[in-house]
Amino acid sequence: MIGESDTRPWGAWYVLDEGVGYKVKRIDVNPHSRLSYQTHEHRAEHWVVVSGRATCVVDGATVVADPGESIDIAVGQAHRIGNNEDQPLSIVEVQRGDYLGEDDIVRLEDDYDR
After folding, report:
1. 24 to 44, 50, 71, 79, 112: CA distances (angstroms)
2. Four-residue CA torsion sign, 101, 25, 83, 61
3. Residue 80 contacts residue 111 (beta carbons within 8 Å)
4. N or C, which terminus of the chain has less Cβ within 10 Å?
């Protein structure tokens, strides 16, 4: 739902737009924090770094992205967004797929024991 948001141990996310087959979120990651290493069965993701520096892991490979750079995550691909810097990180995430619910997460590794 547009305007939906949630605070997480690593930061927060906000739904900016959504429609049939897509959802757009802003993801803010606190300094020296990271999301879980995870996969999704029903969606692909496209991340664009808005501010800060993202240190991401995609299928075990580390990818560093600066503002204006993007990363594509395929359906089922293991991934994690991390912020190893002293400044906040903001990413715009475009999700595409036939199901975009928050419960489409398989956590492979999680710093917060979720």
Report:
1. 12, 14, 15, 18, 25
2. positive
3. no
4. N
Q: Note the pTM of the prediction, 2 decimals.
A: 0.94
> How far is the C-alpha of 17 from the C-alpha of 82, rounded, in Å?
23
CA distance 37 to 80: 5
Residue ranges of the chain with per-residue pLDDT less than 70: none
Residue whose token pair is 């995550």 = 73
Model pLDDT, residue 88: 97
Residues making up the chain, counted from first to last: 114
* Residue matched to tokens 């897509």: 22
Contact status, residue 13 vs residue 5, Cβ threshold 8 Å: yes
Return the sign of the alpha-carbon dihedral for residues 95, 40, 53, 5: positive
The residue among 40, 75, 73 whose CA lies nearest residue 57 is 73
